[in-house]
Design a protein that fits this description.
The protein contains nine helices and seven strands. It has about 220 residues and is an alpha+beta fold. Strands 1-2-3-4-5-7-6 form a seven-stranded mixed β-sheet, with helices on both faces. The two termini are about 20 Å apart.
Length: about 220
């Protein structure tokens, strides 16, 4: 077994993200180092007006001020190998204005940002980053479970995702799957509340009653 294969089979641990390890994972090349997971956090005009360095500073600033981390990380042998962004839905103006959510509102009003019941406090799983060599090895599953636990631990009553359905979009490549796949979310217990946009879904998971535990989020910070 080569070193790369050995590392891809090593145990996965997960935790709320910290900035130094996010910076290590995103690196200096590729789309993560240009986006810094700010695409959904900025409007179109704001995105066009910013540089990658400015987006990096914006993400770094999310780790200041005592707020919950804006995402979770997966590790293998101490190295960060995956990231999942999860924050309150209002932190993502591009999601609030998206066609996917607008279409969902027509078929499932409780998926609409403006019509959701007042008692709900939805958080959004917006993006996955998995390092090359570690894809399709359980990293995304571990990240999603931990993202759910992280959101519920900080007051979310609903966690929402916007995955791609590869069965309807068979030509979707890795660059198109940063939302996660429909199968990933369904396997974690999420329910489809809208598939009004072909190939894209809105999925939701409701927090369990107090004291009932959270099967989707179990194992956060542990080996997977």
């Amino acid at each position: 077994m080569g070193e790369a294969e050995h590392r891809s089979q090593a145990a996965i641990t997960t935790a709320a993200a910290d900035w130094p390890d996010v910076e290590r994972l995103f690196g200096v090349r590729g789309e993560p180092s240009r986006c810094w997971c700010r695409f959904f956090a900025l409007t179109g005009s704001e995105w066009s007006a910013t540089t990658p360095d400015q987006r990096k500073v914006q993400l770094r600033d999310k780790f200041d001020g005592g707020r919950p981390a804006p995402g979770v990380l997966a590790y293998r042998e101490g190295d960060p190998v995956g990231w999942c962004a999860v924050e309150p839905r209002e932190c993502y103006p591009r999601i609030l204005r998206s066609k996917v959510l607008a279409a969902a509102a027509k078929t499932a009003p409780d998926a609409s940002a403006s019509e959701a019941p007042a008692a709900e406090h939805p958080w959004s799983v917006s993006c996955f980053v998995v390092a090359p060599g570690h894809r399709r090895t359980g990293v995304a599953e571990a990240l999603l479970a931990t993202a759910v636990e992280h959101a519920f631990a900080h007051g979310a009553t609903v966690v929402e995702g916007y995955p791609v359905d590869p069965a309807q979009r068979p030509k979707a490549g890795p660059a198109d799957l940063y939302h996660g796949t429909l199968g990933l979310f369904v396997a974690a217990g999420f329910t489809v509340v809208s598939d009004a946009v072909p190939g894209r879904a809105v999925v939701r998971l409701t927090a369990p009653p107090p004291g009932a535990g959270n099967s989707a989020g179990r194992g956060a910070g542990r080996e997977h």
